[in-house]
Design goal:
alpha/beta, elongated, 400 residues, binds pyridoxal-5'-phosphate, Alanine racemase, nine-stranded parallel beta sheet, Ala_racemase_C, nine-stranded mixed beta sheet, Lyase, Ornithine Decarboxylase, Chain A, domain 1, 20 strands
């Protein structure tokens, strides 16, 4: 058998111990599938916060824009700056709250668009932006709290908030938005109540003669569950990465997961019955066993709570991970895999042959959500883009 240095397919892979593979064709496919659910009046914002949920913000942003998204959403100013430094000119909404003069100057300098959550925040923005009176007014997005109890002004106070922003110099009202707390719940009672409150707030804003040019409410759950949540813009994260917010939303669009996590076998050995494996000997072999050491661990984002309760794909077979997950390495029972070689690649998340393991599987074992799994992979794992690369014409387009 060829070692990985010699094998032609392995030669296409970087010689990393472990990595995250990001399929850009899947991202493009998911964006197109989501766009298909939207009317011509609704735009798509690709939410690329947290390094595009671990997929790599710039490559995902470029791919999503090419495939039909027209907005980008980030949580923080540095995340927005990263997109600008990559030459991306699409509108970028900063979803988090920012108040300090340094933050406000950075937002204006990098042409990011801020979320305003309170009247006080609007006043600070107007004051800091008065330093540059010659510039165009800054587009701002008003956040209403309709039931999430996170950021935003209480929906009952929306009209006064909008009037204040309308009056302030240097600010231009770009949108009014809110965020759903239970969009993926099959029981839509709470989401409907939030929607009612949102619409009441918008009606009150309009009654003051203010007509927000854009309204938005839906995350992935809202986007997949009901077109009445769509308004002028949908803010989609999870679904772009190919995961469903809940199983019952799987029928709406055919999504493909974009992320795979792979690592190399670094040693293969036989252990005798009765041998303990890894820290604490939380696994003891009940028979002679062939064991593989794989170069990935919790410092890469493999949750230690998966110890002894995860499977890994090896040559298209599911094998058990055994013993405690350590910082840099895990062990597998590969007794069913003949003649496994050092350097072979195993798949922790993703597909191999007709087997696959998803972030939803890990989330179910851990009692968490797929969002947290995706965001958990550390930067020690290089992100390797596979699938469709951007054409020259497209990359030029975003270089302005
Ligand atoms: C993260 C976020 C989203 C995207 O949520 P998904 O469930 O991943 O689609 C949308 N809107 C806001 C305000 C967010 O913070």
């Amino acid at each position: 058998m060829l070692s990985w240095e010699q094998s032609p397919s392995m030669a296409l892979m970087p010689r990393e111990r472990a990595w995250v593979e990001v399929n850009l064709s899947a991202i493009a496919h998911n964006v197109q599938q989501i766009c298909r659910l939207l009317s011509n009046q609704t735009a798509l914002m690709a939410v690329v916060k947290a390094d595009a949920y671990g997929h790599g913000a710039t490559t995902v942003a470029q791919t999503a824009l090419q495939a039909g998204a027209t907005w980008l959403g980030v949580a923080t100013i540095p995340e927005g700056i990263e997109l600008r430094e990559a030459g991306i000119h699409a509108p970028v909404l900063v979803l988090g709250a920012n108040h300090t003069p340094e933050q406000i100057r950075a937002i204006a300098h990098w042409k990011l668009q801020p979320t305003l959550c309170t009247p006080r925040q609007a006043l600070i923005f107007a004051e800091v932006l008065a330093e540059r009176p010659q510039s165009d007014p800054l587009p701002v997005h008003l956040k209403l709290d309709t039931g999430m109890s996170r950021l935003g002004t209480a929906w009952q106070e929306a009209a006064a908030f909008a009037q204040l922003v309308q009056r302030l110099p240097h600010l231009k009202l770009a949108s009014v938005y809110s965020h759903l707390a239970t969009a993926e719940d099959p029981d839509q009672t709470i989401a409907r109540q939030q929607q009612q409150r949102f619409e009441t707030a918008i009606a009150q804003i309009r009654a003051c003669g203010i007509h927000p040019p854009c309204l938005h409410l839906a995350n992935s759950g809202g986007t997949l569950s009901d077109p009445t949540f769509h308004y002028d813009l949908v803010r989609v994260g999870l679904a772009i990465y190919g995961l469903y917010p809940a199983a019952h939303l799987g029928a709406t669009a055919k999504l493909k997961t974009a992320l795979q996590v792979k690592a190399r076998v670094t040693q293969v050995k036989t252990i005798a019955a009765g041998t303990g494996v890894s820290y604490g000997h939380r696994f003891v072999a009940d028979r002679e066993m062939c064991l593989a050491v794989v170069a990935i661990g919790y410092a890469d984002g493999v949750p230690r709570n998966l110890s002894n309760s995860m499977e890994v794909l090896v040559r298209g077979q599911r094998v058990a991970q055994i013993g405690a997950v350590t910082m840099d390495q895990i062990m597998l029972d590969v007794s069913t895999v003949p003649d496994l070689q050092e350097g072979e690649v195993v798949t922790l998340l993703g597909q191999d042959g007709n087997q696959s393991i998803s972030a939803d599987d890990w989330a179910a074992t851990l009692g968490t959500i797929s969002w947290e799994i995706l965001c958990g992979f550390k930067h020690r794992l290089p992100r390797i883009a596979i699938g469709q690369a951007l054409s020259d014409s497209v990359s030029r387009r975003y270089e302005g």
